[in-house]
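Subject: design request, 451 residues
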């Protein structure tokens, strides 16, 4: 069930790996969107605003874990590329132990800081209680999300992007069914939507685990694989922590933007929420290509095939530009129709504000796509510092732009905050890759059994 990405056409490999990954990420977005759609259509715009107002602080935590587990998978992918199967298993056990530690610690921290953060963001009073209830339940389910992200990341690191897809589709369908059950039958409101998301994520992770036990002999763990090595753990953390903080740092900038947005009232928050969900959906082809690039780069770097990495980046850039243009065309022409899907009724003012945001951001989709290409190739070869600094750049630009754009230009100024951050991050990442690509040398891998 594994796939060796060190031989064959780079573009063909990237497309082959990306397609099931893209379908999986689209389904992930669908069941993330399901909360917003079902809440918006069955409860109303205020409930949609409540769910949307928690997006920034949710991204700060869950983005951290996505980055962390992706970083751990980079080491797993490098060991697999080097044909070090014992190292693959040691990487898996190390990832499990580190995930348990961070899941417990950050769950407690997140729950404790929820109310102060919502207050800091000036969350409107009419949606505060629902927002708090929704995000707290998601936080208590952090371990389920980390479990799925970790095991699916490991499977992808071995070149299999199809298996996580199958179980994600099952979980997506389950999430929608549970949403309707908890909201319409049990009358749980937004809390029901959060509970459905956590349960669906847990089921997806358990199904992946069951499949691994049956079909991935390379991942059958033995007692000696669990021997913990601080130096090997540090090898994982050295790559994973910058990737994790990169997402959280970006999220802090989004919190600053959300605070400005909250001052415009719940209708504008609802419009922005719907538009943001559509943007996330159309960004999935770019995002999926980026993940494929990380796996491709990690395996080829582990195998010492530097020229193949350079060729892969060129191919991935062309693919990314193509899907960026297609995504931009879709949201510009079909944006209002998609927004109406969230609301279930004709609300012209909300639709107009949502379409304005989509029109502005669509003009910068090519820039956003290049962030995913450069960031993931750097992470795949273990150079995580500059991607983290790109996250810092996004943070600074979002905070600065949030302080002025909303005041000077009103809502349209808020629409330009993310594109400004994307431009800054892309300039830094492209400069970093162009600096490093001619100086790149094969790694000297340390085998964990020698630690």
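Subject: RE: design request

Done. Sequence follows.
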């Amino acid at each position: 069930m594994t796939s060796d990405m060190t031989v064959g056409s780079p573009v063909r490999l990237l497309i082959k790996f990306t397609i099931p990954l893209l379908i999986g990420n689209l389904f992930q977005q669908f069941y993330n969107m399901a909360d917003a759609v079902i809440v918006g259509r069955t409860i109303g715009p205020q409930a949609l605003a409540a769910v949307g107002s928690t997006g920034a602080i949710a991204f700060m935590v869950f983005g951290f874990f996505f980055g962390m587990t992706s970083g751990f998978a980079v080491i797993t992918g490098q060991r697999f590329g080097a044909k070090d199967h014992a190292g693959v298993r040691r990487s898996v056990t190390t990832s499990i132990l580190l995930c348990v530690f961070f899941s417990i610690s950050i769950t407690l921290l997140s729950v404790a800081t929820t109310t102060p953060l919502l207050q800091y963001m000036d969350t409107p009073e009419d949606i505060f209680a629902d927002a708090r209830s929704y995000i707290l339940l998601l936080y208590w389910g952090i371990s389920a999300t980390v479990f799925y992200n970790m095991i699916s990341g490991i499977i992808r690191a071995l070149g299999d992007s199809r298996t996580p897809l199958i179980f994600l589709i099952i979980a997506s369908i389950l999430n929608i069914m549970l949403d309707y059950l908890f909201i319409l039958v049990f009358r749980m409101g937004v809390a029901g939507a959060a509970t459905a998301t956590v349960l669906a994520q847990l089921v997806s992770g358990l199904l992946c685990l069951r499949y691994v036990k049956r079909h991935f002999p390379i991942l059958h763990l033995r007692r000696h694989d669990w021997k913990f090595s601080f130096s090997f753990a540090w090898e994982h953390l050295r790559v994973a922590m910058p990737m994790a903080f990169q997402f959280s740092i970006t999220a802090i900038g989004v919190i600053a933007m959300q605070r400005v947005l909250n001052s415009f009232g719940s209708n504008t928050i609802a419009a922005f929420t719907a538009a943001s969900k559509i943007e996330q959906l159309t960004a999935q082809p770019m995002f999926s290509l980026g993940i494929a690039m990380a796996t491709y780069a990690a395996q080829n770097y582990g195998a010492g095939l530097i020229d193949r990495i350079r060729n892969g980046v060129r191919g991935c850039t062309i693919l990314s530009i193509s899907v960026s243009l297609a995504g931009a065309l879709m949201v510009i022409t079909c944006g209002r129709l998609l927004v109406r899907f969230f609301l279930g009724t004709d609300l012209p003012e909300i639709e107009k504000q949502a379409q304005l945001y989509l029109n502005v951001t669509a003009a910068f989709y090519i820039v956003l796509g290049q962030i995913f290409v450069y960031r993931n190739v750097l992470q795949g070869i273990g150079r995580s510092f500059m991607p983290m600094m790109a996250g810092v750049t996004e943070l600074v630009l979002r905070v600065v732009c949030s302080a002025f754009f909303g005041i000077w230009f009103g809502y349209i100024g808020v629409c330009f905050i993310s594109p400004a951050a994307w431009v800054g991050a892309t300039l830094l990442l492209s400069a970093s890759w162009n600096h490093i690509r001619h100086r790149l040398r094969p790694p000297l891998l340390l085998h964990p059994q020698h630690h």
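Residues 306-343 form the longest helix (38 residues).
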